[in-house]
Amino acid sequence: MASTLITGIAELTTWDDERPSITDAALVVEGRIVAWVGSAVEAPSVDSVDAVVHVAGRAVVPGFVDSHSHLVFAGDRAAEFEARMSGTPYAAGGIRTTVAATRAATDEQLTAHVGRLVSEMQRQGTTTVEIKSGYGLSVRDEARSLAVARQFTDETTFLGAHVVPAGPDGGAGDPTAYVDLVTGPMLDAAAPHARWIDVFCESGAFDADQARTILAAGARHGLRGRLHANQLGPGPGVRLAAELGLVAVDHCTYLDDADVDALADSGTVATLLPGVEFSTRQPYPDARRLLDAGVSVALASDCNPGSCFTSSIPFCLALAVREMGMTPAEALWAATAGGAAALDRTDVGRLTPGAAADLVVLDAPDHRHLAYRPGVPLVTAVWRAGRPV
Ligand code: NIG
Ligand code: FE
After folding, report:
1. Is the CB of 224 under 6 A from ligand 1?
2. Taking the model in full, what pTM does it have?
3. Residue 35 clears pLDDT 90, i.e. is over it
């Protein structure tokens, strides 16, 4: 198995319990995984490896784990964004605009579009991405959205319960009939391509009883649950996620004390998506309050054409530090190990022996520069599964 020694690392973030960060560090990659990490002076000799890479005083951090994105869509909603910036509020109903465009696109167009966005993410340091369906909202279009997503990641999520689509006459769809479709034929067609099932639990989308029904149906097909909740206002979604012991609940913008306590007790990861608040002019979620209560926090992009069209984890990290009370180290943990926790993964999001050799070389001496230098392309090299990409 080919081995590479990466040395000259000014600061290596490992998230190892004993040594979460090492200065003047080195790392050995063997095949697809990390074989060794430590101080450069203790590193294996250059003769014992197949190749040596000098990063000349740069920082190395784990590849970002973006645990929440909606990349399978066609068209854009720049006009909606423009109107929002001059005062029109964000509304979930905009999703239907993207549904029409997505249904009209061919499989090849959708695949090419997802491929472009995944490589855009990769160039910015993302090495693991979760991708949801949710702009098809018919049996055929949800199944093919997931089949497209599966070409790029194993972390695929069936989000047929994004909104109730318009009825055949173009008028409001029937929610009861739609939940029957989602939990019946749509789930049958989607499940082979998905690992997770998600519901947008919010007023204007699906209520807690509907979410419970949909997640239970998903579980019968072997899909694990996650939720979009408390994004646009207070609601029951976060408490439902905690009650069901879901791995993660995403958005968590409007929380009361009982929501925070429920998350702390259940261990459900709260995935915060600050690009959404930036792009919708909503208040940011209070990460500090969650962290102080002992909740695990992840950061993700939520890349989608409506509420947040950024693919940049460094941008989200800078927002989290500037606006949400996170330290640079907490934000980096949330976007790496936290994202992994939100996907119930321990093989990514850290750089410890045995983990995937997914890493980012920053053109900076330490991780703080990710937030300190917002908007600057600091990601100079990305390695995925032991190879530069
Ligand atoms: O995560 N909240 C629901 N879904 C997306 C937005 C979808 C859209 O506006 O197209 C979100 O924000
Ligand atoms: Fe989302």
Report:
1. no
2. 0.98
3. yes
